[in-house]
Amino acid sequence: SFKLAQGLTSDEIADMIRNQGLFPDERLRGSSPVDIRAVSEAVKRLSVLVTDFPEITEIDINPLFAYGNSIAAIDVKITLS
Fold this sequence. Notes:
By secondary structure, this protein is α+β, with helices and mostly antiparallel strands.
């Protein structure tokens, strides 16, 4: 999902996640359900990060994997002004 992360509300984050087709009980190939709260918390922390450091102009995370109760960012690019 592409969205300006600065100042996101919990409702906006939940909408972003829903628009990706993830639901709390979704299972992929027999894996554990994705912990939507963990994904939401990661997005919320990114929102705080870009608010606290205005010199961050862009963060690109691709891909972000969600496994049961944990998440992993495989490739992260941060652009500074």
